[in-house]
Write a sequence for this structure.
């Protein structure tokens, strides 16, 4: 079971996209999947125009420069457990790569990394549409954040996911799977990874589904959103540009 994720958010230097993607998909990812415990890789490009639910300004993001701000691409690896990503740690792994590989990695701008463990997962109403030959779904929404600082904020956050958001995602058309994640290392302590059959399905259904189906729970959701502090660009809505499974 793929209960651990290594997630990297980043931008790319101007003019580096084609060469970098060719190297990443054709060389870097296949080599990583040769490592013990790694099961799959999925690479996403974030949507440039993203529509979020709720009133503008209710979502807070880290803006003081202490958190890396890359958001354009999201690279995810799945593994059996987090130790697969710690022998060596990502920074040690990259430092030990050949010079050409390090030059390719230097094209990343604003790189941010988290190693996460799966706290909970639920299957969506369209789980049957998952393609077993690919890793993750064609569209994801990935939020990474820290709880509020007031007493009880984190308890309230965890309770909301368990009692409200995860059950909701089991009923939602277009939803394939949802995973609640907690951090092993990295800035964000919590994350939520939604999988959808497409960006269009996410945009059509997700934005007001809770308000239409359970207005009382929507009020709780509004309270939660106002207390957490997201990473820059979070939550990201992205479409899959590459996927690979362990051979």
């Amino acid at each position: 079971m793929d209960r651990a994720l290594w997630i990297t958010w980043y931008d790319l230097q101007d003019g580096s996209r084609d060469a970098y993607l060719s190297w990443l998909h054709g060389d870097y990812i296949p080599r990583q999947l040769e490592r013990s415990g790694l099961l799959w890789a999925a690479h996403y490009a974030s949507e440039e125009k993203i529509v979020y639910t709720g009133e503008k300004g209710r979502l807070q993001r880290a803006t003081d420069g202490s958190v890396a701000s890359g958001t354009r691409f999201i690279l995810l690896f799945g593994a059996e457990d987090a130790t697969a990503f710690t022998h060596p740690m990502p920074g040690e792994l990259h430092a030990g790569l050949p010079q050409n590989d390090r030059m390719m990695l230097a094209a990343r701008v604003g790189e941010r990394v988290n190693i996460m463990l799966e706290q909970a997962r639920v299957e969506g109403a369209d789980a049957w549409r998952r393609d077993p030959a690919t890793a993750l779904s064609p569209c994801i929404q990935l939020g990474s954040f820290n709880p509020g600082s007031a007493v009880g904020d984190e308890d309230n956050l965890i309770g909301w996911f368990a009692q409200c958001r995860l059950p909701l995602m089991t009923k939602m058309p277009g939803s394939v799977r949802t995973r609640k994640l907690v951090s092993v290392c990295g800035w964000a302590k919590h994350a939520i990874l939604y999988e959808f059959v497409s960006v269009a399905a996410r945009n059509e259904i997700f934005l007001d589904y809770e308000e239409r189906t359970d207005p009382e729970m929507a009020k709780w959701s509004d309270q939660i959103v106002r207390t957490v502090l997201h990473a820059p660009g979070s939550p990201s809505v992205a479409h899959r540009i590459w996927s690979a499974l362990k051979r």
In short: Residues 120 and 180 are 5 Å apart (CA to CA).
